[in-house]
Amino acid sequence: MSRKQDKLAQQVLGDRTLNKKKLSTRIWNNRGYYLMFLPVFIFVLIIYYWPMLGIRYSFYSYKLRDIHWVGLDNFKALFGDKNFWRAFKNTLELSITKLLLNTFAAVLISVFINEMANLIMKKTVQTIIYLPHFMSYAVVAAIFTLFLSPSSTGFVNETLKHWGVIDKSIDFLHNKALWRPIFYLINMWKETGWGTVIFLATLSGINPELYEAADIDGATRLQKVRYITFPALGNTIIVVLILNLAKVLNMFEPVFVLYNTRVLDVSNVISTYIYNKTFLTPIPDYGYSTAVGLFKSTVGAALMLACNEASKKVRGRGII
Amino acid sequence: MRKKIVSAVVTAAMLAALLSGCGGSAQAPAAGSEAAPAAGGESAAPAGGDTAASGDFQLDRINVIVDGTVNATVDAGQKEFVEQWEAAVSEKIGHPIKLNITQLDHSDYSGTVSRTLTTGAPGDADYPDALIMSASMLRQYQTTGLLWNLASAYDNAEFQSRVVYPEVNANLKMEDGKQYGFSPTYGNGCVTYIKQSWLDKAGVKIDDIKTFDDYYNLLKKYSDGKTYGVIAAGYGKLDEAPFINYMPEWWQGAYPSFYQKKDGTWVDGFTEQATIDALARLHQGYVDGVIDPDTEEAGTKQAREKYFSNEQGTSELAFTYWAGTWLRTLTDNMSKNEVDDDLGDKRLVQLPPVKEIKDTWGGYLNREAPVWVITDDADGSDAREQAIFDALFETMLDGDKVQTLWTYGAEGLHWSTAAESFTTNPDDPEKKKDYEYKDGEFHLRQSPNDPDSIWKKNHIDPVLCIAPLTNGFVDEDPLVEEGNKFFLANCVDAPAAASSDTLTANNEDLTTTKTGLMNKAVTGEITPEEAVQTYIDDFGSVSDTIVSELNAQK
Questions:
Q1: Residues B396 and B280 in one domain
Q2: Residue range A199-229, pLDDT digits in tens
Q3: Residues of chain B contacting A177 with CB distance shorter than 8 Å
Q4: Residue B509 domain-assigned?
Q5: Complex ipTM, two decimals?
Q6: Domains in chain B: how many in total?
Q7: Structural domain includes residue B248
């Protein structure tokens, strides 16, 4: 803090801000606040930190009630499992592509909605595109599985056949080449609408005088979008990307409800890998599952710190 | 000062709420128990301490975990069943006893059981004293030390003199004579059902279908891209023994898992030529549109619902499913959907095993029976465990009151011997059916959760039971009887489930990989030979280790 800021703070807040007393004294002086904070602190310790003691089991073999120390064996097995590395690669590819596509689509739709002059139309479109967000992934998967089924009950295949576009059903969700594009489409359909909320909020905050000035300068509608709207969204886009990048390893539900054994090569992600190892194994080794979880958390933490640094560079301040 | 007092009061209140929230549930008694368990939450707690001698041991509560095979669910009269069980068993053993049933989701049963047995310990409020396990689960758990060896209790059980299928439990005995599971019934299995109306349209009689080719040609007649020959829950259900029983005509003599040959040697069936041949047949069926493509992802519920759906224009001719009671259930569901109403109970016809099945296995596969097990508290005394056996298993086959409860459910709710009359589907003139019974006549009543259908059974199938009822209570549904008779006349025992340390550790990988390869081969993504070769390349050494471990167990 500069000397000038110091002086200003001293004038405004007096001794309360620039207290140079011992920590213990300061705590005692503010004991009322600390006392009020205590339940929250205990709650955080119990709910968030106490379970973390379970991390130690990543160094144990933990099958039923047989628990014994195995050192780094779980990690050796993990790093030697090609299925794990495939899941790791898939997680990054699926998450990052999904994030970029969803953000891009949300920006585009936000701009379209923002440009709509008819208020009723605007509200109607917003409502329609928000709705899929409130459906659970299980329901979404059931709907699309039925729609895309290769059997005679599959709406898409039967329609395409009826129109003469294809003569044989396409097995959309079991085809390795098609699974990912369909996965991205389904996710865009479900989440893009909701993703527009934050961008529409930003757009509503753009100073109208900028548009008026552009009108006076004779800018066309497209030029106003190009030179005013998009630049105004830039900072928000970066924040959204950075915040979401830290969560890329957490993908589970969208994949779990749509993947199948024929497309595992392109769909199995770390969370589904852990699920399979833990819940589909008759007598699972919880030590191994914990090791995978610990690795995932470590990478997630590293990504978050990297994002924080990126945020500092881009925005001048971090996100944590 | 006032602020500090307020903050102290608020803090105290929040702390109290937090701490009471943390500790509160531990003191709560389990549902169904009369009082909170003693310190430590002993479930099957002895009145006079756990080390009491067998004769002194007084069991006052039993916790059981069951799957969906207990039909008296919470919504279908479980409360009445438990009340009558407690009254009847208390009378038999001479002191009050409580039964606490935890019924788990059928689809994730083994996973939930695994987690319960991992995180709990005997004496915990929710830890099971007894539970149901599949044959595969039994093989995996019987060497863990968590289960009680009930061989002696079973051999000395009172019901032994009435056992008509001794081989069911004899097969559960290990080489060293130990026995960890008890099965009150035969295993049951699947038979192939064919819609009579479709058969009539094709001008074919069921007796004309003797070989796989006969069967295939019939299926092909209905495979026009809208309707299909057959649907099943997967081309093979490789996560559930006996793996091939939903598509037996296609798998024939193949067994895509570890099994014991006639000479006692264990082999990995997925690597055998028979599996390649089976995959080739399934692939041909897929290409010809004989097999509904929904088979790949269908669960049993989806498959059967499509089969008896009112949308018969997109349905199938054949469906292989469980024998006996399910013949009635499938027929009733077709009736509900107004499918082939003119045929009544003759809507479905059972296909005798085709020649290729007879020549290899000998008939449809009778799966290894699910079992009941007792958890061992490892206290060095058998008193608790014997008491559980006596109160739960011994009474389960008493031939009379308690066995009737497990077989048909609660008196007055699920069944009755009182004179009465009732009507199902009273508002539908076409389906309306009147029932009238005289006093003393045993009969099943309307299902508590579906008054338009008649209750079928509770847990034990009366026809499959190893020691039949002695009170003469027989459900005389001719269709169920016909189904059971047909299966018993056309079945053979399925191969015993395999279990070894390496198999348990790799089971998920093996199942997922084999299922993926099977699906790819059936749909033509790879050839059957490539599927098997890929499996050998990826899991050959694991497979060899498992086979070695299994053969070393002999």
A1: no
A2: 999 999 999 999 999 999 999 989 999 999 9
A3: none
A4: no
A5: 0.78
A6: 3
A7: yes
